[in-house]
Amino acid sequence: MQQPRYHGSLVVAVLTAALALSGCTADQKARAYAADDRDEWQQPDRVMEALAIAPGQSIADLGAGGGYFTFRLANTVGPDGRVYAIDVDADMTERLERIARERGASNVSVVLADFDDPKIPELVDLIFTSNTYHHIEGRVAYFERAARYLRPRGRIAILEYKSQGLFHRIMGHATEAGVMRSELEQAGYTLIADFDFVEQQHFLIFDRPSRDPLGI
After folding, report:
1. pTM score, whole prediction
2. pLDDT per residue over 187-196, tens digit each?
3. Which element (helix H / strand E) includes 125?
4. Domain assignment of residue 101, yes or no
5. CA distance 21 to 26
6. Residue 124 and residue 140: Cα distance in Å, rounded?
7. CATH code, domain carrying 135
8. What is the dihedral of CA 34, 91, 204, 141, to 10 degrees?
9. I want to staple 168 with a disulfide (CB 3.0 to 4.6 A). Which of 39, 46, 114, 174 is the partner?
């Protein structure tokens, strides 16, 4: 597939906007995370179907950001389930709490996490993360620790940008599927699904280690 071409002025504008994002309000950040055409390329309904979530399950939305997937997950688990919207950005967690109240989403709990610990309040059936993997440092150790938050048959699902296009290569907002698979396998997980229907992203699902790799 032919890669898009970028003019120098466009690259500068995009990078400037990305660097300035940290100074935006939570609402501005959320709008940036949910571009107008995201539904078209993200195919959220197909993503939810592929996750095979059962009503009543508990899910952690790791790096929930503006809540693009949070409330879709909440609708899927239903009133007897629970979604923990996890983020390290206090502005975003405050916004998510407000949005959850406004929507009456009583099955959504918002958690302000540490950079090295998602701080999920209870065991969950699924840790879901979209566009966040590249932000995590020390990923093998991080996901080794994350196993303690998963139920015995729990899974981790990762949507992560492919390293195609100049923006993702320059900003480092991408991770190749082989890298993710290697790191998760080092952390004790087993790859069980690799979907290719999201053109811009890898979509991998892993089974929890058969035992906690840290022995905790």
Report:
1. 0.81
2. 999 999 999 9
3. strand 124-130
4. yes
5. 10
6. 20
7. 3.40.50.150
8. 160
9. 174
